[in-house]
Design a protein that fits this description.
The chain contains eight helices and 14 strands. It is of the alpha+beta class. The strands form three sheets. Strands 3, 4, 5, 6, 7, 8, 9, 10, 11 and 12 form a ten-stranded mixed sheet that branches. A two-stranded antiparallel sheet has the order 1-2. The termini are far apart.
């Protein structure tokens, strides 16, 4: 897009590479994994930096982009404070973000949010009350590979009744969803994330899953905490505007492609018609049957015998 004189014009791609890049960003029936943008605000604390680093590690490799510079003008809850954020979203092709900042009024602040069509969708502000990073569980964390698809467990009635907690559940699921899959192998489950709602607090815990022999078909399961261990408190939230919410809930219509040269018969069912060019059987390489081979050998022997008799008769004359 190009803005000239207050008007926004859509520029068409001039190269095949640019066209492929735009086609990759178009809506799909099965979307690609959502990429997260992780960045810092104008002022941060060491706790905020460590929390964002752990969130970056929990995301699958390639599905997270982390900015190291400070961004003073990124304030999602203020008017005009989302302009640069939306620009970063378009630049990195991200649909999620995690912003960290710190102030006296709101210490150790983490803001989670989503984009739709690179426009700010919804935002949730969380405060970090207690934190223990992955490094503190270094021995247990070596049992799993960070970035794998985790299993989620949400505990608490607030996730059904409280709008802020419902938004928190939806954001966390989107953040760590990864690729969409049809089935999962039990042995592929290596970690589980527990999120417990108590009042206005969210208790975030991650455990490694170990399957032990139980003497039965179903193995015995043991959990070992691997971090991060975070106690969040919900502060501010902003729901998506009605217009963006309506657009984001639309699903593309899937038109079934018509099959060419295919029909249906009441007796034979599905019937297909194929095109076959005219065939010359004399020039075709066919598999020769053994019976035909013996017949050819007999004919050849008779022809040789007849030729020998004619040669003998000619010599006698």
């Amino acid at each position: 897009m190009k803005t000239t004189g207050g008007e926004t014009k859509v520029q068409k791609p001039k190269t095949k590479r640019g066209k492929r890049a735009l086609q990759a960003r178009e809506p799909k029936l099965v979307e690609d994994p959502k990429r997260a943008l992780i960045l810092f605000g104008g002022k941060t604390s060491q706790v905020v930096k460590d929390v964002l680093s752990d969130l970056h590690k929990l995301k699958t490799a390639g599905d997270s982009v982390k900015y190291s510079r400070k961004n003073d003008d990124v304030r999602p809850f203020e008017a005009g404070g989302d302009t640069n954020l939306e620009h970063f979203s378009q630049k990195t092709d991200s649909s999620l973000f995690a912003l960290g900042n710190h102030s006296k009024k709101r210490p150790h602040n983490i803001i989670l949010g989503r984009f739709f069509d690179h426009r700010l969708h919804d935002v949730l502000e969380l405060g970090v009350d207690r934190y223990k990073g992955i490094k503190a569980f270094a021995k247990a964390a070596t049992a799993v590979q960070l970035g794998n698809k985790p299993c989620f467990v949400f505990v608490g009635e607030g996730f059904e009744n409280n709008p802020d907690l419902r938004m928190a559940k939806s954001l966390l699921l989107d953040f760590f969803r990864g690729r969409q899959i049809d089935a999962i192998n039990l042995k592929g489950l290596s970690q589980v994330i527990f999120v417990v709602a108590t009042g206005k607090q969210l208790l975030f815990r991650q455990y490694a899953i170990a399957f032990k022999k139980s003497g039965a078909q179903v193995p015995r399961t043991e959990l070992a905490e691997i971090g991060p261990k975070i106690d969040f408190s919900i502060r501010r939230s902003r729901a998506a505007p009605e217009e963006i919410q309506t657009q984001s809930m639309k699903q593309p219509k899937v038109e079934k492609q018509k099959e060419k040269h295919v029909g249906y018969d009441s007796l034979e069912g599905k019937v297909g018609r194929i095109y076959m060019p005219k065939q010359d059987l004399n020039s075709m390489a066919l598999n020769k049957m053994k019976g035909l081979k013996r017949e050819r050998q007999t004919l050849a022997a008779n022809a040789a015998e007849k030729k020998a008799k004619l040669a003998t008769a000619a010599d006698a004359d």
